[in-house]
Amino acid sequence: MFIHRPMIMTMMALYRVTTEPICGVDEASFVTLFREKWARLDTALHHCIAFTRFCNSTGKRYQPHKQNIESNKEAAIMIEKFHPITHVIFDMDGLLLDTEPKYEKAISTICENFGSKYTLEAKLGALGRTATDAANAVITKCNLPISCEEFLDLMESQYPSVFQHVDMMPGAEKLVSHFAQAQIPQAIATSSKTTTFRLKSKGKEDFFGKFSHIVIGSDDPEVVQGKPHPDIFHVAAKRFPNPPESMQSVLVFEDSINGVKAGLAAGMQVVWVPDPCLDITSQNATQIIKSLEDFNPQHFHLPKWA
């Protein structure tokens, strides 16, 4: 197992020497010793307790230093919680592309035409889901007197104008380009339909060309159940030319609660970039950030920003 020197030094930063060396182990040889010992131990050594035991075995007694831990909270979280990542999967709407306000406008128009209102409850039920599942959620929550097919037809009629111009979300291009340059395999798992994907991605061929593949959940026969079920992420993972060895080494980026649930159900780690209206205490995402601009690749042992 290859161990990055920064990881070793980060762990050392959380500790201090409490006694003189019991045997002649000098500081200069610490990293070498650590690397040799690590290769014989399992991943439990990522945790502070196991690290302390190792330090003791080298001839020095180390113990957690409260001040150091408090000043290195991000490093401590990285060590304790996050598993190294080899593959990345992104949601698209509301995460990479600023499309959610456009969907909200289109749905609100339909609801108003039937004397109803597109409520927050309905929005939460629709976010991240396939076109059919989202339509049924809105129809039910907003008491619309139309069928799912009729609702989808009304939505489709608005798309050419609604998606005429779509902006990128903050940080999306930078992060995707960073992974591409670092040769980290990345894919998209979107609940969109093929027709709407083509409209939204028009003029962004260079950006979408950085992905290994794109799973379009509403039209993909292998995606039997949409988010919050894990199908779409399992399909996306297995389609990588070199699939991940474990689902835990896949990092999912999501903006919806249903997407977070789907990623976690797939056994993957999930970075959640929630809509401001969402209750962030209700989910167990691996990490929560306000924007893709706030993501730190090193937390997941990924290459740092260039």
From TrEMBL:
Residues 1-19 form the signal peptide. GO terms for molecular function: phosphatase activity. It holds the Pfam family HAD_2. Keywords: Signal. It comes from the Eukaryota. Transmembrane segments: none annotated. This is Pseudouridine-5'-phosphatase.
